[in-house]
Write a structure and sequence with these properties.
233 residues; mainly alpha; binds zinc ion; Ccc1_fam; transmembrane; transmembrane helix; VIT family protein; manganese ion transmembrane transporter activity
Length: 233
């Protein structure tokens, strides 16, 4: 059988990794920029700010990697346990499982006879795959690799944290806090716009949303940091 093959662009396929890396980079910009601004407001020297920035990059990237690994790994464990149960059920009760699959297709809108026929053919083709996809909702797209997820979110966070780091390095003497803030706001605005563009959603809204939340975090950090400024006592 031959079909004329028509394939439209689907945003959801690239949404996963794009979302993860943009969120990681946003985190890197917001948390490290806020950290630096808090420290700058307390009157810390440029050298202290740079050390803080490196420490913030390392601790943030490690915590992103650990968090992502644990979250993806537990998802994978759940999927594997589900598949294991399903495989056992298919061996023990193939008839019940066929009925179950038929019922799923009936609920999805097929006539009972056709649903039965579809269930029989898919079971013959690959019973576990059919149950995994249509009963549990697992297919190739949904299963991620924990190490890959950990590595890419740590990388994304580090890339985000490079913005405040370069801002400190390139800032004129005495303006480090302001330079870091401006670079932080601009990079968030640009990143928000780029991610909205790729996600196919409103660029202005996406950009504003991430920028506003970033500014709130930075302002809060500066506010707290200013309590520790020795020169104001
Ligand atoms: Zn089943």
């Amino acid at each position: 059988m031959y079909y004329s093959h028509h394939q439209e662009k689907h945003l959801i396929q690239r949404a996963g990794w794009l979302r993860a890396s943009v969120l990681g980079a946003n985190d890197g910009i917001i948390s490290v920029t806020s950290l630096i601004m808090g420290m700058a407001a307390s009157g810390a020297s440029t050298q202290t700010l740079l050390i803080t920035c490196v420490a913030g990059l390392i601790s943030g990237a490690s915590s992103m990697a650990a968090g992502e690994y644990i979250s993806v790994k537990s998802q994978v464990d759940i999927e594997e346990a589900d598949l294991h149960t399903e495989r056992n059920e298919l061996e023990k009760n193939p008839d019940l499982e066929l009925k179950e699959l038929t019922h799923i297709y009936v609920l999805r809108g097929l006539q009972p006879d056709l649903a039965h026929e579809v269930a029989v053919q898919l079971t013959a083709h690959n019973a576990l795959e059919a149950h995994a996809r249509d009963e549990i909702g697992i297919h190739e797209n949904t299963s991620a690799n924990p190490l890959q997820a950990a590595g890419s979110s740590a990388l994304a966070f580090s890339l985000g944290a490079l913005f405040p780091m370069f801002a400190i390095l390139l800032s004129p003497e005495g303006f480090v806090g302001k330079t870091v803030m401006i670079v932080g706001v601009l990079s968030l605005a640009i990143l928000g716009a780029v991610s909205s563009y790729f996600a196919g959603t409103s660029i202005i809204r996406g950009s504003l949303r991430v920028t506003i939340w970033g500014v709130i975090a930075m302002a809060f950090a500066s506010f707290i940091g200013s309590f520790f400024n020795v020169s104001t006592f």
